[in-house]
Automatic annotation (TrEMBL):
The keyword Membrane applies. The lineage of its organism: Bacteria, Pseudomonadati, Pseudomonadota, Gammaproteobacteria, Alteromonadales. It is found in: Cell membrane. Pfam families: HAMP, HATPase_c, HisKA. Keywords: ATP-binding, Cell membrane, Kinase, Membrane, Nucleotide-binding, Phosphoprotein, Transferase, Transmembrane, Transmembrane helix. This is histidine kinase. One of its GO terms (molecular function) is phosphorelay sensor kinase activity. GO terms for cellular component: plasma membrane. SUPFAM superfamilies: ATPase domain of HSP90 chaperone/DNA topoisomerase II/histidine kinase, Homodimeric domain of signal transducing histidine kinase. Residues 154-206 form the HAMP domain. It catalyses: ATP + protein L-histidine = ADP + protein N-phospho-L-histidine. It comes from Pseudoalteromonas rubra. The keyword Protease does not apply.
Amino acid sequence: MRHFALSLLLAVVVISIATSWLFDHLYQTFTPAQQQHTPQTQLAQLARDIHALIAATDSPHSLLIHWPAQSLLQPQIVPAAAFPLPTALQTKLQANEQIQLETEQHRLFLHRLPNSQDLLVIRSDQAAPHSGLAWWLTGLFYTAVMALILIWLLPFLLRLLRLRRAAQQFGAGDLSQRLQVGSVLYLRDLERDFNHMAERIEHLVQDVKLLSGAMSHELRTPLARIRLGMDTLEETIDPDKRRSYEAKINRDLDTLSRLIDTLLNYARLDQTIHNSSSQPLDLCQLIKKTSAAFETSSLTIDLTLPDTPVQLSGDAFYLSTLLNNLLGNAQKYGRGQVRLELTCQGKHAILAVHDNGMGISPQDAQHIFKPFVRAASAINAQRSGFGLGLALAQRIAQWHQGELSVCDSDALSGACFTLQLPLL
Ligand code: ADP
């Protein structure tokens, strides 16, 4: 992080120096000297004008006698021999060009006077800017630039630092690490994405733990029964008993194969969800189609749907899987009566699935959406199941940016599952 801040500051300083040099250079190159309105070029032009004036008079010496002493430029006529100049400069003078010489205190503009061996030397007392002060000012300017950039960068750097620390702790195993989403605009998405990623990983790790715990229990029980059945079968000669043991083994094998299928479906869900695509669909149609398959003589489904289509974006296959699981549970844990109510509230579609069954206690309601969790009431009532249907339904709802919750049903006195999905 320190390297990043330093390199950024260095880059800003180098870039500003380089660009100012470049523009200065371009200005000098492409603007004729006469049009460059720096104090230096203006003085040179003034000196040229004075030279033209003096060269045009018949008696330049008398003009200079009356020259104001306080004038910015002081002309003098000096014999050329008093100014030994290098040949290159002398050639310039012969070509009537202006020559500029600079000392610590003065700046001199030299011109040739026509028809004379004398030179017109115009002296400006305006000393060249003090280079030490100039360097100080330049240094101060860049320090101020760096300080301002640092102030601007500080919240950004602090948040990046927090993000880095959170990532390190998360990597070290603290899966509860989350970031407070701040106000720095360009980091907000990054922080949200980090939290989203952390949440997903935490869920996945929890699922894996639950899955491995449940695997060892759920798989071992039928496997142990099958092994015992096989041993007993080997020792039994009576054909009736043998048939009964074989039937038991077959039932255990069926349970085992259903469990493995359900486990694989659940495990593959993440990958399948990421590969599937959302399409606009009418939730009313989907509900009608899915619930029709449950209508039997032992189950009555009472449908209350809006008259107009309820459009949302989603995957029809997975949404009907979700509904299948809710209706399947209402059938399994209910007493033959189900009510489905679909309404639209604001930007959401709300689907309530009521049943007249055993209901769910508030303690169980907090856990039944976790994989392999089953309420004691369901186990005691000897209803078959692996505790994965609601976990699957919850995942599908979340993937559709929806929510699935449970409460007591006022209408039918059993359980009421509520699914909330965003409308298109
Ligand atoms: P499964 O039904 O296979 O056990 P689910 O994940 O579908 O798994 O349900 C988890 C648990 O939630 C069930 O074991 C049951 O205890 C409880 N449950 C789900 N639906 C209902 C319902 N409609 N009425 C009462 N309890 C329910």
